[in-house]
Design a protein that fits this description.
Blueprint: H1 2-8, H2 13-42, H3 53-58, H4 70-75, H5 82-96, H6 115-126, H7 133-137, H8 140-156, H9 167-177, E1 182-186, H10 193-204, E2 212-218, H11 221-232, E3 241-243, E4 259-264, H12 295-304, E5 306-317, H13 328-337, E6 341-346, E7 359-365, E8 379-384, E9 390-391, E10 397-398, H14 401-416, E11 439-443, H15 444-449, H16 457-460, H17 464-467, H18 471-502
Parallel strand pairs: 1-2, 1-4, 2-3, 4-5, 6-8
Antiparallel strand pairs: 5-7, 6-7, 8-11, 9-10
């Protein structure tokens, strides 16, 4: 990453990411092709044909034409027109693969990209084994691609958040929902992180990648291209990941889809979402969202697309938990009274690259008494996770696996808890308990008493250790400590003044 960034020179990070990630993608598919080509070549006497495109298709390997193969590009890396060679290679690959049509970047011949730097970048990428069977099984490219996406998001600052949701937040959403099989939908899918981690979750739990099918939509075309590449390198079918300029509200690409899982991180507090053009839209079953903020439009869009037993886990600005402006409070009340909200998680600050706005996770379910889990339709779980996570730099916080496990196990234990009259053996489950300061299960009646405000802090209270302290004793101790520090400061100032008076300047 450091070497690649050094070669960036005067190119904007937003533009440079397509150059670097495009080359990494090209190297990957070329490595995978070359390995299979060599194997088929060795089996020619047994009837194998290394030029038969169907052989590659059968094993989910892209067929790479001669002019686009990595070694061919590497041999031309020092030539002044290397940029044109790379653009032509991208075109040639798109001609061979319908799924990549219009996806790959053709930006390598631009005048602001120094051919010498591009050649050095090709040399750099050449040193990474990406598409060999061993590298593929370890998902080396997946890690490289995701790491570079994260680094570019950091380099772009606020703009970076438009295509990248931090890994720990994605993992938390996926592990909370447990999408073992079915249709997974993200209508604001960015670079496809929700899909990648959903597939990863399935394979880690001994499932098959084909157990889930993915559906997505993205309104930024360059971000959509990143998603298509991100999914292609993992062999994930992205044929239902759609792009259009208007976006999910004005031009829903999956109008008839009813998803088993919706996992999403829509942009926070969007004011120009086109709400004035759709005041009577059929998706607004719980109230018309305000034209000046899309938060409750997103929530209702998600609910509209849920299957009868579907579940959703989404990130929203924390303000949506309390806002009463322009009818938002009434919509929130309707969601609660229609028993759609399952769990709210208050997140720590500084998790997101593009905003300092506090965020919360909303988990919703179409049917909370469907027999899959216990009937919890008359209650909502509140988790206050603001004190979890650790700083990875001055501006950014991250949730550890331990933090993720703490939140998910709390939710799953609560959700799976047998009903009091159930014949399920309660000993087969970890027992859920309210933990002051961290989690509380609140009946709908209590939520109504608090005017449908969903801030977890209103329900979980203070931790026990903060609840049971003697204020007078604590104040006296702090006062004593402050007085001692002030006394020490006065003594140090006196010593400094004495030492300064002893210093003689050269010309005195």
């Amino acid at each position: 990453w450091k070497t690649a960034d050094k070669l960036r020179k005067n190119i904007d990070a937003a533009e440079y990411k397509h150059i670097v990630l495009g080359l990494i993608f090209l190297k990957y598919i070329s490595d995978a092709f070359e390995e299979m080509y060599a194997r088929l070549k060795a089996e020619e006497e047994q009837g194998a044909d290394p030029e038969d495109k169907d052989e590659y298709k059968a094993e989910n390997v892209f067929f790479v034409p001669q002019e686009a193969r990595w070694n061919n590009l590497l041999s031309k890396a020092k030539q002044p027109d290397i940029g044109k060679f790379v653009d032509d290679a991208m075109d040639a690959i798109e001609m061979e693969s319908v799924s990549l049509k219009g996806v790959l970047p053709k930006v390598f011949a631009r005048q602001n990209l120094d051919p010498t730097s591009l050649g050095e970048l090709i040399d750099l990428v050449s040193n990474i084994a990406l598409g060999t069977a061993k590298a593929r099984s370890a998902d080396i490219l997946g890690h490289v691609f995701e790491y570079f996406l994260g680094e570019f998001a950091l380099a772009e600052g606020k703009k970076g958040g438009q295509f990248y949701t931090p890994r720990s937040v994605v993992e938390l959403l996926v592990e909370m929902l447990e999408p073992y099989q079915g249709r997974v939908f993200d209508p604001c899918c960015g670079s496809g992180g929700m899909f990648v981690h959903s597939e990863k979750f399935v394979t880690e739990h001994q499932g098959k990648v084909n157990d889930i099918s993915i559906y997505g939509q993205e309104s930024n075309q360059t971000t959509w291209r990143l998603a298509k590449m991100n999914l292609a390198i993992r062999g994930i079918d992205s044929s239902q990941v759609k792009w259009n300029n208007e976006g999910s509200f004005l031009n829903d690409a999956h109008k008839d889809l009813k998803a088993d899982y919706i996992i999403a991180n829509p942009p926070f507090n969007v004011s120009d979402w086109g709400g004035d053009l759709m005041r009577t839209d059929g998706r607004w079953q719980y109230g018309t969202p305000p034209t000046g903020n899309a938060n409750f439009a997103w929530l209702q869009h998600f609910i509209y697309h849920l299957a009868p037993s579907g579940q959703a886990g989404v990130v929203l600005a924390k303000g949506a938990l309390t806002s009463k402006t322009s009818g938002e409070g009434e919509i929130r009340k309707a969601l609660v009274e229609n028993l759609l909200i399952d769990c709210i998680v208050n997140l720590p600050a500084k998790l997101f690259l593009n905003t300092q706005i506090p965020a919360a996770l909303w988990f919703m379910s179409r049917n909370r008494k469907n027999g899959k889990f216990r009937d919890r339709s008359n209650e909502i779980l509140f988790i206050d996770a603001r004190n979890l996570g650790h700083l990875i730099n001055r501006r950014t916080r991250e949730l550890s696996q331990e933090d993720i496990d703490k939140i998910t196990s709390t939710y799953h234990n609560w959700r799976n808890l047998p009903d009091r009259h159930s014949e399920l053996d309660s000993e087969s489950h970890d027992i859920y308990r309210d933990i002051p300061g961290f989690c509380a299960s609140a009946p709908i009646g209590k939520v109504a008493d608090l005017d449908y405000v969903l801030t977890p802090g209103r329900y979980v209270g203070l931790p026990d250790d903060e609840d049971d302290f003697d204020f007078k004793e604590r104040f006296t101790a702090l006062k004593f400590e402050l007085e001692a520090q002030l006394k020490e400061e006065a003594e140090l100032n006196k010593v400094i003044a004495e030492n300064l008076s002893k210093i003689k300047l050269l010309n005195e």
